[in-house]
């Protein structure tokens, strides 16, 4: 009720000079997030508006938005206090039943080490950092990701690992696509074992259809491998039934047939089991969730992926590599596939733009925490307990078809539905495989008492009272891992896995890594199109509530809290977007693009318009758009932009008319990636609809739309939403992300479907679980509920205010590439640096690196136009922080002027030598033609607010690509 009164205060006491909710009645509550989310105070807002040349926020918005742009005023729902948010989400979490789960299927119970839970997952220095595109200020998380890659490589026995994929199902689909690419897209058949997890098979089938790949699902070992030109064969061990096999001989047969051999694997099992590499696998994939990452109703977690060295350039996703800086010091960087989809566009082999970096870091650090011996101990205990259950079930007369197993056993010859129901009544979930078969999967959280309970229930169903003591049974006869599958090779041999044995050491190592990285805990991150906004603490706290850590395949009646949360979020997002339905199955923005296009594709097929595959994409489109369209089987048609940076309506009309019989859709970003609200966006949508196509809107720039306009009102049929941008989920150093899609009513039946739960539309499966990374949805729920309808609109307005303030102050020193008809930008702008290449031999990279010396992460570099920086401040930055960034850029302009006038050397200056590491500045031999002070403390506040020092000098990217190494070097890890 306090929130309702607060809004009444807004209406009653708002003054003529537009004092907003941040300066309100003294009787209003003090713990409203709405007061904390907006950066500028009322006095700052007045000064900023005066600088821009506007008398009010309303005047600013009227000058920025095109007059014909449809408006969308949100319902004025009550705002909530921070304590309301935490309390309501806690109560929702308690409405979920946290049953004892043996469901497995790729999701397992695990213990997150408290030192990692508190100092990584719950630490804004880790979760608010950005993707490590700027390596010099990302060395901490790059080192952590190299640990993850090293762990994956060691356990899978394959030399190259990437820095994580979105989930296990899509990792399997990426493996199929990679095998297709390895064979130059000439072999169009793919074989999958029918014992692979069903969600993975479904993801593979969805991905294969638009590419023209025929997927065969069956018993792979009896399949005639010579019958079809197979690009790849995919098996899984442990499989759905829990069986583990040595596929060494079979892999030879696959290779003789000229196909790529792929193994779905379990990292914990590989601690004691023969590795995929030792069995002849070319690619291995799977989930690292059970390495300390909660199940979270399906995610987020990091999928692992490894392959042979010769295929490194075909591997999907991000790869972290080892290089050197300009002084020869070891330095880490993203390598090979770094943003390759932006460069190769429709020729890219993957559209991956977001990884699961935060979760990969947790999984890698989990293996550091336990070390090689600890990991083997956990794996052996899991196997031993499941073996004890297996022996007792056989003694009771149950049929256990699983010959060799790691953690999962199957029971057949029973009434599966009845058995599942019986266990549910005892607070236990087991998996129904078939009508006569169930399975039980053990994990790190399984105890001897759990085994005793299971045996007791199974015995009672046989009419006996058999009780066991699992500990006594183990002491009498410890189960042995199958000798033919037992791992003989060493695991996790790198010193990092064998150096940290106490919590003191672990804590200090985590802080050592943390100090090497810039995050929002240090300063603003002004990335255009990536919206690095406040991730409020009250929004983050609930993700660790125990009640949100449930299995994604739990019965729906056990997840009523999640259903209420997701239902409420869906309703608010529909109001915000103007759409009729939302699907949460996409695990990233780029995956949302793909999901939206697949929905359009399925709709067109249903209306006998399968021939419509032409996708019109403006030159200004978001970087992943062409790659996503190609993956969806679309034929990409480029549309030109006019001199103002807008979609050329004339060219759009011509292309739409030319391809009218083949037109599937238009992909447009709004506001455009050029940083303006295009005047003719509604007309563009109408042109596409006139010729029978659909409009896909990229939601990357929704932070300027919410509460002002909406994709649905503008004319879009589908739009993805970056919850890790506009709706406050943090970027996590490169992930997690969420990219749900909103659609109009006619597309709703064709939304993605979940084959395990039977939820969704008629579309194919996009991600492993139906609600993707469901455990981070409370963040967006909290953000929307905390701000209310009015507050969300104010957030958009303040984002536009902050951007235009920067634009106005900078335009005296730099060119702004595009603005609207009245000189305004949207929530971001492109700063033109191209002239400096001619006048001073200075590039956008030089300026980006120099900004590090001022304590800032660079804006988005070279996108969408080479030679530019795209600046987006977000609404949460105050005037003081904006001024510091502006002052830094003005000072850099002065430094460029020194080069232009000849007072500084063109090749040896503060910009070309940037960034300046601490080692350089304090070195005895300082040989620069400028002072140490100028290098390290270019403005007074750089010193007084706490200098952030890059830990390495400028990284040598060319050296790194010429000497690819994707595992952690054996450097000194003495703590």
Automatic annotation (TrEMBL):
The modification N6-(pyridoxal phosphate)lysine is found at residue 725. Residues 35-458, 646-753 form the Glycine cleavage system P-protein N-terminal domain. Keywords: Mitochondrion, Oxidoreductase, Pyridoxal phosphate, Transit peptide. One of its GO terms (molecular function) is pyridoxal phosphate binding. Its EC number is 1.4.4.2. This is Glycine cleavage system P protein. Gene3D superfamilies: Aspartate Aminotransferase, domain 1, Type I PLP-dependent aspartate aminotransferase-like (Major domain). It is found in: Mitochondrion. It is an enzyme of class 1 (oxidoreductase). Its main location: mitochondrion. The glycine cleavage system is composed of four proteins: P, T, L and H. Its cofactor is pyridoxal 5'-phosphate. One of its GO terms (biological process) is glycine decarboxylation via glycine cleavage system. Residues 795-916 form the Glycine dehydrogenase C-terminal domain. Belongs to the GcvP family. InterPro entries: GcvP (IPR003437), GDC-P_C (IPR049316), GDC-P_N (IPR049315), GDC_P (IPR020581), PyrdxlP-dep_Trfase (IPR015424), PyrdxlP-dep_Trfase_major (IPR015421), PyrdxlP-dep_Trfase_small (IPR015422). One of its GO terms (cellular component) is mitochondrion. The glycine cleavage system catalyzes the degradation of glycine. The keyword Cytoplasm does not apply. It catalyses: N(6)-[(R)-lipoyl]-L-lysyl-[glycine-cleavage complex H protein] + glycine + H(+) = N(6)-[(R)-S(8)-aminomethyldihydrolipoyl]-L-lysyl-[glycine-cleavage complex H protein] + CO2.
């Amino acid at each position: 009720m306090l929130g309702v009164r607060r809004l009444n205060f807004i209406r009653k006491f708002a003054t003529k000079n537009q004092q907003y909710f941040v300066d309100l009645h003294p009787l209003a509550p003090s713990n409203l997030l709405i007061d904390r989310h907006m950066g500028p105070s009322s006095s700052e807002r007045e000064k900023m508006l005066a600088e821009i040349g506007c008398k009010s926020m309303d005047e600013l918005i009227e000058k920025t938005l095109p007059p014909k742009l449809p408006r969308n005023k949100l319902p004025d729902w009550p705002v909530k206090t921070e304590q309301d948010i935490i309390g309501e989400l806690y109560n929702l979490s308690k409405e979920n039943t946290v049953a004892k789960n043996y469901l497995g299927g790729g999701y397992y119970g695990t213990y997150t080490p408290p030192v990692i839970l508190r100092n990584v997952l719950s630490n804004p220095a880790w979760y608010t950092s950005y993707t490590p595109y700027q390596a010099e200020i990302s060395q901490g998380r790059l080192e952590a990701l190299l640990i993850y890659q090293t762990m994956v490589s060691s356990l899978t026995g394959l030399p190259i690992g990437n820095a994580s994929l979105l989930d296990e199902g899509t990792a399997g689909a990426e493996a199929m696509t990679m095998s297709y690419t390895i064979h130059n897209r000439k072999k169009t058949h793919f074989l999958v074992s029918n014992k692979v997890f069903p969600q993975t098979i479904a993801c593979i089938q969805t991905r294969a259809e638009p590419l023209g790949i025929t997927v065969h699902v069956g018993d792979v070992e009896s399949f005639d491998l010579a019958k079809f030109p197979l690009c790849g064969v995919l098996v899984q061990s442990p499989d759905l039934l829990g069986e583990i096999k040595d596929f060494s001989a079979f892999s030879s047969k696959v290779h003789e047939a000229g196909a790529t051999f792929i193994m779905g694997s379990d990292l914990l099992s590989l601690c004691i089991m023969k590795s995929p590499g030792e069995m002849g696998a070319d690619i291995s994939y799977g989930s690292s969730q059970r390495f300390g990452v909660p199940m979270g109703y399906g995610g987020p977690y990091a999928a692992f992926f490894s392959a042979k060295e010769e295929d490194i350039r075909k591997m999907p996703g991000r790869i972290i590599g080892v290089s050197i800086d300009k002084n020869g010091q070891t330095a880490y960087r993203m390598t090979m596939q770094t943003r390759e989809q932006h460069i190769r566009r429709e020729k890219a082999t993957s559209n991956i733009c977001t990884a699961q970096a935060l979760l990969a870091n947790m999984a890698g650090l989990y293996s550091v925490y336990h070390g090689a011996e600890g990991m083997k101990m956990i794996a052996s205990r899991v196997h031993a307990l499941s073996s004890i259950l297996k022996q007792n079930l056989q003694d009771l007369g149950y049929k256990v078809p699983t010959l060799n197993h790691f953690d999962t056993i199957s029971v057949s010859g029973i009434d599966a539905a009845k058995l599942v129901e019986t266990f549910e009544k005892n607070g236990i979930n087991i998996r129904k495989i078939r009508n006569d078969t169930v399975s039980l999967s053990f994990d790190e959280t399984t105890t001897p008492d759990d085994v005793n309970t299971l045996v007791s229930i199974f015995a009672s169903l046989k009419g006996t009272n058999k009780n066991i003591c699992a500990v006594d049974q183990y002491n009498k006869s410890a189960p042995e891992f199958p000798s033919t599958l037992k791992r003989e090779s060493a695991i996790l041999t790198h010193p990092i896995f064998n150096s940290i044995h106490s919590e003191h050491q672990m804590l200090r190592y985590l802080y050592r890594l943390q100090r090497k990285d810039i995050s929002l805990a240090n300063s603003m991150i002004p990335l255009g199109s990536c919206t690095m906004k406040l991730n409020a603490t009250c929004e983050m706290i609930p993700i660790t509530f125990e009640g949100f850590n449930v299995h994604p395949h739990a019965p729906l009646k056990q997840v009523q809290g999640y259903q209420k949360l997701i239902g409420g979020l869906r309703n608010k997002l529909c109001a915000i977007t103007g759409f009729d339905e939302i699907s949460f199955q996409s695990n990233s923005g780029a995956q949302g693009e793909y999901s939206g296009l697949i929905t359009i594709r399925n709709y067109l097929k249903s209306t006998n318009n399968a021939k419509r595959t032409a996708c019109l994409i403006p030159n200004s489109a978001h970087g992943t758009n062409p790659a996503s369209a190609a993956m969806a089987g679309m034929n990409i048609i480029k549309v030109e932009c006019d001199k103002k940076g807008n979609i050329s309506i004339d060219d759009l009309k011509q292309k739409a008319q030319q391809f009218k019989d083949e037109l599937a859709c238009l992909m447009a970003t709004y506001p455009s990636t050029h940083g303006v609200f295009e005047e003719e966006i509604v007309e563009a949508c109408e042109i596409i609809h006139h010729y029978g196509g659909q409009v896909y809107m990229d939601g990357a720039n929704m932070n300027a739309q919410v509460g002002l306009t909406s994709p649905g009102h503008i004319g879009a049929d589908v739009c993805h939403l970056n919850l890790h941008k506009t709706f406050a989920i943090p970027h996590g150093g490169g992930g997690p992300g969420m990219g749900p899609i909103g659609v109009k009513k006619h597309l709703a039946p064709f939304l993605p479907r979940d084959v395990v739960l039977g939820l969704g539309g008629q579309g194919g499966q996009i991600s492993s679980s139906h609600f993707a990374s469901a455990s981070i949805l409370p963040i967006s729920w909290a953000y929307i509920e905390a701000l209310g309808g009015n507050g969300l609109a104010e957030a958009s307005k303040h984002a536009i205010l902050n951007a235009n303030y920067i634009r106005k102050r900078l335009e005296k020193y730099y060119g702004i590439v595009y603005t609207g008809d009245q000189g305004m930008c949207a929530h971001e702008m492109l700063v033109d640096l191209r002239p400096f290449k001619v006048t001073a031999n200075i590039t956008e990279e030089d300026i980006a690196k120099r900004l590090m010396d001022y304590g800032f992460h660079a804006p988005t570099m070279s996108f969408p136009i080479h030679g530019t920086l795209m600046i987006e401040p977000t609404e949460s930055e105050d005037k003081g922080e904006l001024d510091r960034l502006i002052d830094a850029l003005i000072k850099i302009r002065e430094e460029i002027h020194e080069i232009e006038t000849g007072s500084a050397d063109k090749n040896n200056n503060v910009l070309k030598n940037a960034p300046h590491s601490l080692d350089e500045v304090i070195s005895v031999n300082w040989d620069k033609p400028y002072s140490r002070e100028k290098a390290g403390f270019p403005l007074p506040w750089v010193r007084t607010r706490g200098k952030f020092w890059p830990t390495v000098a400028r990284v040598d990217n060319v050296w790194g690509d010429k000497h690819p190494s994707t595992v952690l070097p054996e450097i000194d890890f003495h703590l």
